[in-house]
Design a protein that fits this description.
single chain, alpha/beta, 6-stranded mixed beta sheet, 4-stranded antiparallel beta sheet, binds adenosine-5'-triphosphate, ABC_transporter-like_ATP-bd, ATP-binding, transport, ABC_transporter-like_CS, ATP binding
Amino acid sequence: MTARTVIELESVRKAFGTGAVAVEGLSLAVREHEILALVGPSGCGKSTTLRMVNRLVEPTSGRILLNGEDVTTADPVALRRRIGYVIQNVGLFPHRTVEANISTVPALLGWDRRRTRARVAELLELVGLPAANFAKRYPHELSGGERQRIGVARALATDPPVLLMDEPFGAVDPEFRRHLQTEFARIHRETGTTVILVTHDIDEAARLGDRIAVLSRGGTLEQIASPLAVLAHPASDRVRDFIGDGSASRMLALAQVQAADLESADHIVQPAPAPVRLGARLTDAFEAVAALPGSAMGRVPVVGKSGDVVGSLTADGILGALRRAADAAGAGPDAQDAVGGVPEDAPGREPAV
Ligand SMILES: Nc1ncnc2c1ncn2[C@@H]1O[C@H](COP(=O)(O)OP(=O)(O)OP(=O)(O)O)[C@@H](O)[C@H]1O
């Protein structure tokens, strides 16, 4: 089945008055419910691309369609109410409470108090900041991470079908950033909103993105594919340079232990070491094998859903699994989607957060 396209950019170009061409002939399609991570080096046109979707920036030429409708002919205010927007440092109104901040768009739409209050409570619950503790606070009474989550709640207030996020976790320290990414992956699973996420961080893109679009200078699309396909088969030297080192460890975090990677359970030395689950991330399997005592002969048992041992795994098996995942990513439908086009549905995967 082919996923529905929600946002489509057709040969979009943006030249600023200064003569700077931020985006040149960019075509890409964003599928319903996916997180498309837009990555690339500083100044390659990521933010400009995002801001053209909600008309904070007007394209010089080309078309941008939202559910098949040309956004350049839509009323910009009405358009922005249908598209949530989250930026670094959030931009909460400092003199308004959390509740009032989240209620901004519902108030503009004339929602009554009861409906608005119920929605605020629901959203605060969703982002893990219960209304009883947080609704009446002011932004300066929150940590940076809490403000960021309020920004997400505010952007989701009227349940927009599309969410644009520009470096949403950029302002928080790396450890908490990881936590917010995990939280956001959960929120996304619950809401199913279609998301374009701008980030310069390939790890964030690989963790959160269903697909990654890699741009190079001048808003040129180098590759659009699943995280595994981008890591295993970079489409150009520019993509390779952008990804840098560490692809193998990133791929370990994305690929899973599958039945095809297992050897017989007969070779497991007794007493059996703690098992790894079928479907676990290869990173977890790798750590389990690395932590084995010498007596285990480098082999961990693997259990299925019911907890029964279904086979065993060694370091060689993990390498084989990594190769299989890389090959599958290269052969998958997304691999053909090197530049533009509307690829077929990718197989669903659990976020690697
Ligand atoms: N309002 C503007 N006027 C003139 N040039 C601009 C304007 N906004 C962006 N640019 C230029 O367009 C190019 C793309 O900028 P953009 O902010 O979209 O890049 P980016 O990939 O989001 O960068 P970063 O990762 O550093 O935020 C840059 O060369 C930038 O200087």
